[in-house]
Amino acid sequence: MIEFGYNIAKDRQIDFDKNDKRISTYVRENEPSFKTCISCGTCTATCSAANFTDFNFRKLQLMVRRGETLEVKEEIKKCMLCGKCYLACPRGVNTRNVIIQINQAIEKIENHDI
Amino acid sequence: MNKKVVVIGGGIAGMESSAHLAALGYEVTLLEKTDKLGGHLLNWEKLFPTMRMGKEVVTFLNEGVEKGKVNVIYNAEILNTKEIMNGFSITLNNNIVLESDAILVTTGYDLFDASKKEEYGFGIYDNVITSAELEEKFMKGEKITTSDGKIPKRIGFVHCVGSRDEKVGNTYCSKVCCVTAVKQSIEIKEHLPETDVYCFYMDLRMYGMHFEALYRESQEKWGVNFVRGRLSEACENMDGSILVKVEDTLAGKPMKMSVDLLVLMVGFEPSLGTKKVGKILNLQFGVNRFFKTQDQHTLTNVSNVKGIFFAGSCTGPKTITNTITDARAAASTIANYLSGHDIHNRIMTSDIKATV
Q: How far apart are CA B117 and CA B125, in angstroms?
């Protein structure tokens, strides 16, 4: 095989049609305030974890909405559930419960419950 | 005998509607709680988006009131009202009793009290001020300095303070703060060309004619910077400058930045007068605590009480242009009512009413 010195890059587009939106559906049903996020970033600005890791709650909720499940599973581990973001959110999103519901959804998907 | 209309509140809406009602031939009495007409407009030097002087608009409004021979009662407070045959009897603080065929409520707004948003440090840190305080400096021709008299090297503007914020109970957009921040940023650059200006916003709502052009001018001509992110908090550095914490949402990272002066763009709340007058007249309030109009599209000046009408920002945040238009619309609605049309029941069924 001839080595051309380059590879075919992995498609990095969000494939919205193919992506698994089960986490999003589950969180929307179990914590409806999740639907009202306007991506203002107050949560991330106040986040204790975000100062030292690349955790970003605003991005996390977007990844959930877009069905980027693999990224969500990795990112969510960095949250310490301190709840500062819940105090700061101008839309009153219960961010703490959003994290809990995402974890539950991941568990249910693994157990084939949803 | 001429029919009589009492207008409550001598701001922009009250003045312009009085002038138009007078021109239509009604005997108009305008009640003002202070000793001056003009309301909030008296506190704003230049107006967006044209940068024309606010006092020019005050002069225009005054001329209407004077030409119309509107009877203005200053320092007025309403004690009570009674419904009488086809109208109202209104008792004021100085024992004056007025009779009127219709009432127009133009009791306006108050600015949000920024100290309620404690995490932004207004009233705690000396270098955190409100947009109204900055405007006062422009108005008085005062130098723009930090609390210890230095020229600020960097100034931050925080959008949506007391607006679009469930945590302070105001979920609505105040409509004028976005473009006011752009206007004041330009004025800062005019006064202090060396000073860097940063606006922190969630969305920039440049909906009005020429607003977008002013936004563009602020970038192109004046170099104003815009950061998309809402502040989580502000705290004071050792030297008295203010450290803001925000997520630069477009960069996708939390950001901290020191500014020498932080300006909070305070939004609209229903005024104390709106609350008081509403109670006395049994008027309905909407979900945002402003007066509820009988229909959002078609009965914008009509209250729940027959013969009582609204104009201006007592029904929700409005620009000066919108307030003036609304005031004229209210005058015309009242003329309609006083010539015998059943304006309150003009729409057919209650299920087509879209009320807010």
A: 13
Contact pairs from chain A to chain B, CB under 8 Å: 64
pLDDT in tens, B250-264: 999 999 999 999 999
Domain end residue (candidates: B226, B243, B267): B267
Q: A45 touching B, CB under 8 A?
A: yes
Using an 8 Å CB-CB cutoff, list chain A residues near B167.
87-90, 92
Q: Are B54 and B41 a contacting pair, CB within 8 Å?
A: yes
pLDDT < 50 stretches in chain A: none
Q: Which ranges constitute the DSSP H helices of chain B? A: 12-23, 54-67, 131-140, 177-191, 211-220, 272-280, 320-338
Q: Which residues of chain A does B164 touch, with a Cβ-Cβ cutoff of 8 Å?
A: 90
Work out the angle at residue A40's Cα, subtended by the Cα atoms of residues A37 and A43, and round it to the nearest 5 degrees. 80
A92 touches chain B (CB under 8 A): yes
Among candidate residues B267, B284, B301, the one where a domain is terminated:
B267
Contact state of A38 with B203 under an 8 Å Cβ cutoff:
yes
Residue B113 vs residues B54, B139, B161: alpha-carbon distances, Å: 23, 21, 9
The pLDDT tens digits for A21-54 are 999 999 999 999 999 999 999 999 999 999 889 9
* ipTM, interface predicted TM-score of the complex: 0.87
In chain A the domains, ranked by start, together with CATH numbers, are 22-110 (1.10.1060.10)
* Most A-contacting residue of B112, B172, B232 (CB-CB within 10 A), to test interface: B232
Task: List the single residue in A with minimal CA-CA distance to B168.
Answer: A90
Number of structural domains (chain B) is: 2
Same structural domain, B22 and B123: no
